[in-house]
Specification:
Its cofactor is pyridoxal 5'-phosphate. GO terms for molecular function: pyridoxal phosphate binding; transferase activity. It holds the Pfam family Aminotran_1_2. The chain is an alpha/beta fold. It folds into two domains: 158 residues, Aspartate Aminotransferase, domain 1 (Alpha-Beta Complex), CATH 3.90.1150; 233 residues, Aspartate Aminotransferase, domain 2 (3-Layer(aba) Sandwich). It is built from 14 helices and 13 strands. It has a seven-stranded mixed beta sheet with strand order 3-9-8-7-6-4-5, sandwiched between helices. The chain has a three-stranded mixed beta sheet with strand order 1-2-11. Strand 7, helix 8 and strand 8 form a beta-alpha-beta unit. Helix 2 packs antiparallel against helix 11, helix 12 runs parallel beside helix 14 and helix 13 packs across helix 14. The longest helix is centred in the C-terminal third of the chain and has 19 residues. The N and C termini lie far apart (53 Å). It binds 4'-deoxy-4'-aminopyridoxal-5'-phosphate. The site of 4'-deoxy-4'-aminopyridoxal-5'-phosphate has 14 residues, from helix 4.
């Protein structure tokens, strides 16, 4: 079994498979470890938020954390649309008209006019004709890759892609290239030449833990040179990047390339739930009839579909939110940098403060929390073992006062833990 003295060094992953230990004993061992983390103030998970997703939230009802109000840096609601009156009203109206659920999977009776509307809207959003919806963004990725790639094929992943992409690759061949490293990608593509039926390179537009963006132009050149295809998950780029919020493809002038398979979510900028794939019509049709999650899992509820339709309209009609988000990002990044914190290469609404040591990162997160600043402490396996960081998501609706409150909390935290390097003058 697991030696309790090793607890300080362990992570959840160490409890995934304990040799010769069956499920109930494994649950007991894990329970003991969770209690240890809780007793040491390291179990900052599943805090009960009473107020909903907004720039400030109230936490109440936990055993080990203080109840109170917190500035929210943990929601990917970049434009604040979960609270926008028009988005809320669209959801309410949809419930009044259509009820609360879809009742079946899309293939067998669960495809409604509001789904068709959303499918059309998201295809048009990228200037294309066809799209498919999934009930979560996670499934959009995993289902698509599972349906497209089989044993004769290979997925070539940037190592920093989202977990849902790794999940989609469980039944095909996989190779990962070092994050945004073109030499390594080319090496793999060369090595795979003629060996596989389909080679699909998969990247995120914006990387969810570092906030940096894909070198997509260089990647696309390599993809074409070696006869591969490209899938981009732009969950964190849409609504944030590009002059009209169409994401990294718009920013890089690549929206016209019809060979790129685009996946994304309605759960971040669009303040709702669900995922989508936009690609050439025949490929979308194949997914509609061959992806298991589309055949066997219920479609998204009317409220969420219509909230997403409304949020997409708002992005065009109220561009001030996207502009304000970028003002907030610039102000906050400058504040953190001037104190000497390492924020890596972020160019998006995701801002990490890279610390490295997991215990120190947990302490820093806790100090910020005690000062009313709710951030995420990110550790292995979400990132490499020595790459722990505080991760924050910016919102257009954060006020300058809230950003200053957070920057002051970072300053106080640093006075205690000495994490930041002095900025070079
Ligand atoms: N892709 C990326 C890059 C993500 O960050 C996430 C969510 N964390 C997903 C996909 C999954 O989306 P959802 O939460 O809507 O299922």
């Amino acid at each position: 079994m697991i030696d309790k003295n090793t607890y300080p060094k362990l992570t959840f992953k160490d409890f995934e498979n304990i040799p010769n230990v069956a499920i109930h004993e494994r649950a007991t061992a894990f329970d003991d470890f969770l209690n240890y983390l809780d007793d040491n103030g390291r179990l900052n998970y599943r805090l009960v938020n009473q107020t909903g997703c907004a720039n400030e939230l109230t936490i109440h009802g936990n055993n080990s954390v203080s109840d109170g109000n917190y500035v929210n840096f943990v929601s990917n609601d970049y434009l604040g649309f979960t609270q926008h009156p028009r988005v809320k009203q669209a959801a309410i109206d949809a419930v009044s008209m259509y009820g609360t659920g879809a009742g079946a999977s899309p293939a067998i009776g669960g495809h409604y006019s509001y789904h068709q509307l959303l499918e059309n809207k998201i295809a048009q959003f990228f200037g294309k004709t066809d799209a498919i919806l999934y009930t979560t963004g996670y499934t959009a990725n995993s289902a698509t890759i599972q349906a497209l790639l089989k044993k004769e094929d290979i997925a070539i992943l940037d190592m920093a892609v989202h977990a849902s992409i790794y999940e989609g690759c469980l039944t095909t061949n996989v190779k990962t290239f070092l994050h945004n490293n073109m030499e390594h990608l080319e090496q793999i593509l060369k090595h795979c030449q003629d060996q596989y039926r389909t080679k699909l390179v998969i990247i995120d537009g914006v990387y969810s833990q570092d906030g940096d963006i894909a070198k997509i132009k260089d990647i696309l050149q390599l993809v074409k040179r070696y006869g591969a295809y490209l899938l981009i998950d732009d969950a964190h780029g849409v609504g944030v990047h590009g002059d009209t919020g169409r994401g990294i493809l718009e920013k890089e002038g690549l929206l016209k390339d019809d060979d790129i398979i685009i996946t994304g979510v309605f759960s971040k900028t669009f303040g709702s739930l669900g995922g989508y794939v936009v690609a050439e019509p025949k490929l979308i049709r194949l997914l509609k009839f061959q992806s298991r999650q589309h055949l066997f899992s219920v479609s998204m509820p009317p409220s969420q579909a219509m909230a997403a339709v409304q949020a997409m309209a708002l992005l065009d009609e109220e561009p001030q939110w996207q502009a304000q988000l970028w003002k907030n990002i610039a102000y906050y990044k400058q504040g953190l940098k001037s104190m000497g914190f390492n924020i890596g290469n972020t160019e998006s609404g995701v801002i990490p403060v890279k610390i490295g040591d997991p215990t120190l990162t947990a302490k820093a997160t806790r100090i910020l929390f005690d000062k009313g600043i709710y951030t995420n402490c990110i550790m292995y396996p979400a990132v490499a073992k020595k790459d722990a960081r505080i991760r924050m998501s910016m919102m257009a609706t954060h006020s300058i006062e809230q950003l200053d409150q957070a920057l002051n909390a970072f300053d106080l935290m640093n006075a205690k833990l000495q994490i930041a390097n002095k900025p070079s003058l």
